[in-house]
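fwd from M.: "can u put these together and see what the complex looks like"

so here's what she sent:
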Amino acid sequence: MATLARLQARSASVARQYYYRNSVVDVFRKKENDAAVKIQSWFRGCRVRAYIRYLHRAATVIQKRWRGYLGRQHYQLIVKLAYYTMKMNLYNAMAVRIQRRWRGYKIRKYCFNYYYLKAYLKAVSETNEAVREALEEFADMKEREERKADLEKEEKKRDYQARKTHYLLSTKQIPGVYNSPFRKEPDPRELRLQKAKPLTHPRPKVTPKRSASLRNWLECTRARSFPRSAVLPPIDRKPCQGPFRDIAEVLAQRYKPLEPTLRVAEPIDGPKEARAELQRQEWTRNVQDNLFLPFSSYHKSKKHIPAMHLSSKYGPDSYGSRHFREKNPERWICDKDFQTVLPSFDLFSEYGKLYSKAGQIV
Amino acid sequence: MSQRQVLQVFEQYQKARTQFVQMVAELATRPQNIETLQNAGVMSLLRPLLLDVVPTIQQTAALALGRLANYNDDLAEAVVKGDILPQLVYSLAEQNRFYKKAAAFVLRAVGKHSPQLAQAIVDCGALDTLVICLEDFDPGVKEAAAWALGYIARHNAELSQAVVDAGAIPLLVLCIQEPEIALKRIAASALSDIAKHSPELAQTVVDAGAIAHLAQMILNPDAKLKRQILSALSQIAKHSVDLAEMVVEAEIFPVVLTCLKDKDEYVKKNASTLIREIAKHTPELSQLIVNAGGVAAVIDCIGSCKGNIRLPGIMMLGYVAAHSENLAMAVIISKGVPQLSVCLSEEPEDHIKAAAAWALGQIGRYTPEHARAVAVTNTLPVLLSLYMCTESSEDLQVKSKKAIKNILQKCTYLPALEPFLYDAPPNILKHVVGQFSKVLPHDSKARRLFVTSGGLKKVQEIKAEPGSLLQEYINSINNCYPEEIVRYYSPGYSDTLLQRVDSYQPLIN
């Protein structure tokens, strides 16, 4: 208790002391704190740096190893590739050599044989020359023949002329027109006249009774070439001459009808005519002139008279077209309506409604 | 006494009829009378006379009708409308040979005008009787019938088919074998008219064995017959490879070349047509013709004639050259190119020029050697002038342009190309400059020559759009020369030099 009392007595001075001492230290407190921090930071920095240095060293080692490994691997690859490329280049070069040789050989041998082509072209030009020559010769020959023919014709004409004018020949007494006494030599025509035989008088031609030159004017070779035959065919044709044959036979011989081949003899419209013939026959044979008309339209308006013993009504039955069940319910075996057994088909129940493109009902 | 008087009346009537019909037939030969005759209703008067009791009158009436119908298609139509044909057809089968000839003449005169009129004749059933007439003994009747059939078949494939269906072909083939030249001629022409429409019809003609007989007669001296024979063969050969080979199989080849030397122009033309129709099908057939020396013969033939007769020959050369490089070479060594260029410059007509241009293009399009062969004959400037000429037809322009392009793209013969630098339009200039740009880098002599001849200067003057193909070519030409030379030849270089003189400070010691 006494202590307590003592302490209580001292409390005031303690508080004062405390305050006092704190105020004295306060001046240095900040400084000291800063210093402590500085020391700590330096120490800690050293420690961390050392650790990082350690880590870096370790990482370098790892990286060194790894990169070395990768590099070696890459190098292997490059070497392999280079080797492969070298090899392939060599192979290709060799292949090209082989192909070059082969292709050259093949083309020269089979496709474009230069010497062959040359020989061919030479042969063609030789043939051309030969053909040209032959044709020339041929044309020459033709020409010669023609000239010869012309000459012959000319000669003939001159001969004929000489024969015609044979009277111009000089006689012993009187020189002819071509044999002038004032000239040294007679004209060549005179010589020709000497050689020629005088033309004899033409005999009067026996004109055929009917001009057979009908051919000429049918071909229209001359403009006025009609046979002006005075003799007309007799109108009162007499019966055949002579009692050699029967008249009917002679006539049949003379006016023989055409005997065409079967195909020509048959008319083109054979079926049509046959049909017409049938129709004609029917016309003659028909007893009843009223046409028998087909059922469908003719009997529509007519009323059917039922037979006496018939009880059922005549006319179209609606069963099957409008209904499928007996109309009279009393004749039904069961009195229920018909029911659908199968479920209705979805698509049909939606039939008639609008659909979108995706198939949904709108 | 009285009997004689009665008969005299008849005789007078008959005389009058005869005279009338003869006068009408005579008048119908002159075109200026036709109109008057028509207006006078000659048709209706002649018709009953066709049924006259006197055969001479019948024949003369038919003849008059034929002459009228021959004149124009209105009259021919009047004959058809006057229901004269059935009478004719009926009596064609029954009467004597003179009447048959006259009736066939009428049918021919009617049928030649139009397919409709020919169809009218067919509808009358005339074909069957005409075919029967082909079986006649008289060659004149056969000739008239074959003539009429040929005129009917000429119009179109259906009518030809009708003629074929009537069974005319075997008989026509028989007619070819007859001794009469005129009949042979007409029958060959009828066969040609039938075969020309379709491969099937041609095949029918071939099946009847016509080719062998036709081929035998190629050497016949008669020119008109030769014309028809060659035309028939070419109409057969034109349809397909098979038919062409059939024609070749008849061993026409060295023989037909003699026809190219014939006096008659149309024989020449038809012979070249035949060769053309054969050559156009396959390289093998062309090769056969080349081996037989046909190309040389055709080239000679082209040289020996003028105008349209040349055309098939020119086309034949084009077809042969179009098949392959070697065949084109064969045309070149047969001296075809100079002949074609002569055609190109000489012929007045555009379509022949166009054909020649096309053929030259076909020859020159393969290799530089081919193109050189074409270029040395100095053809390119002619082609260019044809292309540039405003009077040329469109077809000619297109063809010559194509030929120029084909040849230029292969041409390495620079002397021929150089003129093109000066007067070619841009679309052709492109190819020319392109050829220079391909050749110059590899040829030092040509480079030198190109500068001295002023080509380089011209190239510098060309205005090309940057980035275009032409510019690229120009650049590659410029790359072949030192820069100073290129600059020296560029336009405006002297001005820049003068400017340098102006701006130069003289050195004063």
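replying to her w this: The radius of gyration of chain A is 72 Å.
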